[in-house]
Write the structure tokens for this entry.
Amino acid sequence: MTPIRSLSSSSLVAMGLLMAPLALAQTVEATPDPVQQASEKAEVRRDLEAETADNPLAITAYRRNYVMPWTYNTNPDEADFREISTDGGVDHSEVKFQLSFKVKLLDDILGRNGDLYFAYTQRSWWQAYNSEASSPFRETNYEPEAFMSFDNSWTVLGWTNTINRIGFAHQSNGRSDPLSRSWNRLYAETIFQRGDWAFSVAPHWRIPENDRDDDNPDLEDYIGYGDLTLVAQSAIRKYR
């Protein structure tokens, strides 16, 4: 019978010491570089948007597109709602959704950079469950805009600045007095990416109106002077 030989404890320790650097090296190699990831994601986006330039009917997503089947408004405006429907009172529960897209108009205006876009965003609050009032739309905001977009690859502290934009936007609820609400603004936006994370800083300046025409005199008290956005790519989307 052939004897069974076992490894001594010292041999196991030696093998462990030899294998540890190899395992560590494999782990390091498997960890993606977040700066490289950001550059690759930006390059994929640029390639996809470049393909749409050859199709004048192509549109791409702009801001978030979503549907929230149920939202709750703690303090709806009863007086304004009576201007919309007199069949019943306003409901606290409603559906909220947003549609947003953009279309490239001109490519590489400033040499090899600087693209001109038209964009449109619509956000609606729908009293879908208010059958007593025939389920009207309580409010819809329409926001057309035009902006210049500049690609970039500047990196600071591990974050890559991939896009910079300057633009003009008009937002209105499309109603006549006394429910009319509208305003115009100029804005700048800068977007940074790192791995699966991205954040944007977008300050804006409201174009002044005279007191007689201004139907939003205290608008800045509610919306502030810009937007900060932080997003992460979900694991479901990443590995789908």
Observations:
- Residues 32-239 form a domain with the Outer membrane phospholipase (ompla); Chain C fold (CATH 2.40.230.10).
